[in-house]
Write a structure and sequence with these properties.
243 residues
Amino acid sequence: MKKIILIMTIIASASIPLKAAEFEKDVFKTSEGELAITFIGHGTLMLEFNGKVIHVDPVSQYADYESMPKADLVLITHEHGDHLDPKAIDAVKKESTRIVLTESCSPKYTGTDVMKNGDTKVFGTITVEAVPAYNIRNTRADGTPFHPKGRGNGYVIRFADKKVYIAGDTENIPEMAELVDIDVAFLPVNLPYTMTPEMCTNAARLFHPKVLYPYHFGETDTGELVKLLENDKDIEVRLRKLN
């Protein structure tokens, strides 16, 4: 009986969302202070810069958002439930929080700012550009792309002299070749919704980020991506718990 109770306790504990201090974090130096990136899970991230907190695609499954730092800015890439979670947004927002959504998110949540591909907005000292995120080859049974062009956003965020690209759900699309001077990139690696390691390798070679984090990778073996890019010395691949 004691063994059964112990197993049940372990299973129950594993399902409890983590708190902020329990996640991995990397820190980057910028010309105006440190940028801290917390790796929460799947497509969910938290970025902190000069006292400001940005939550990207917060989802309750991956964190205890009641205990997380309140947001100055929330960025939502698209309307799918593993990226848009009203409960998580409500948990981190305060009266002054700016909430950036796509038009496709509007039926599910009312934010403060709607951005479409090509839009740029300035939030204090932080500049955010919305860029395309879509499928070309990966489609549903009826031929509709999992992520049609124009519905979702990737985001390029400028923190002083550093630029972070959070791709959202996308394939290796031609528009990635237009990205310049990306210091940190998050690229999704899971089928059938986004990219294979080979497609991600192609994407990275289109714009050569200094640091590449594969994210939203599910059961994909991210070690394959490391091998594919091992001779690309200008791209450092870092693996974190973002499946």
